[in-house]
């Protein structure tokens, strides 16, 4: 059995609890604070819900990613902005409007312990927001200090379980230590399809964090934990 020399974490529902995710709240934020006065609210929401929703729905077919930045720039061209804010600032505020989040109570203690064990930690997350936005998000929780590097699917136009996204972090791990084998990289995530099967198919050792203790999902009996504290029994 391979020993863990590197840990890669998923973000949402692994380290951070996404209490509420409501994409429409982000659109309403744009309408109220960003778009030019006189923008027709119903027309704007209809356009977003038809044209852009269709594009987002297609992501699952090929595990591609569509950055929210592209949607925002389209809105800027179509409706105009009444503020002179940076695209990054607007996206960050949209992310906060869409997501109500909190840290799991075992997140920081786990990351601290991994640091004392001198085990490198990376973050690989499916997300419609790019790294420049998400770095601010994880910095809000003071998590950035624990990661060697962070990767978000919006920067690469591909998402888990696609092998190309796992290759991004694997390449950087190899640069830092060429002797590390894929199976010595433990990937911890809550999505059985995206995280567990994606990591396994790439060659990483998957660890399924099943916080809600759902039965019948882990049919292949991969490593499974109910809290991050249990991770240390495996590594």
UniProtKB/TrEMBL annotation:
InterPro entries: HAD-like_sf, HAD_sf, S-2-haloacid_dehalogenase. The keyword Transcription regulation does not apply. Transmembrane segments: none annotated. It comes from the Bacteria. GO terms for molecular function: hydrolase activity. SUPFAM superfamilies: HAD-like. The keyword Mitochondrion does not apply. Keywords: Hydrolase. This is FMN phosphatase YigB, HAD superfamily. It comes from Anaerosporobacter mobilis DSM 15930.
């Amino acid at each position: 059995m391979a020993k863990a020399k590197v840990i890669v974490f998923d973000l949402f529902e692994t380290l951070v609890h996404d209490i509420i995710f409501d994409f429409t709240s982000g659109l309403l934020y744009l309408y109220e604070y960003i778009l030019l006065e006189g923008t027709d609210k119903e027309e704007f929401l209809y356009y977003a819900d038809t044209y852009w929703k269709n594009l987002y729905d297609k992501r699952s077919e090929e595990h591609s990613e569509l950055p929210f930045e592209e949607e925002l720039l389209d809105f800027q061209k179509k409706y105009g902005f009444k503020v002179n804010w940076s695209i990054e600032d607007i996206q960050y505020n949209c992310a906060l409007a869409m997501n109500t989040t909190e840290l799991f109570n075992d997140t920081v203690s786990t990351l601290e312990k991994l640091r004392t064990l001198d085990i490198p930690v990376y973050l690989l997350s499916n997300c419609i927001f790019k790294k420049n936005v998400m770095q601010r998000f994880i910095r809000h929780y003071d998590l950035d200090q624990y990661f060697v590097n962070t990767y978000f699917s919006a920067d690469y136009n591909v998402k888990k379980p696609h092998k190309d996204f796992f290759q991004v972090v694997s390449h950087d791990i190899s640069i830092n230590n060429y002797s590390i084998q894929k199976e010595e990289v433990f990937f911890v995530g809550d999505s059985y399809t995206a995280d567990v099967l994606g990591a396994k198919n790439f060659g990483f050792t998957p660890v399924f964090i099943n916080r809600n203790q759902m039965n019948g999902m882990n049919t292949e009996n991969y490593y499974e934990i109910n809290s991050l504290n249990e991770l240390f029994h495996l590594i």
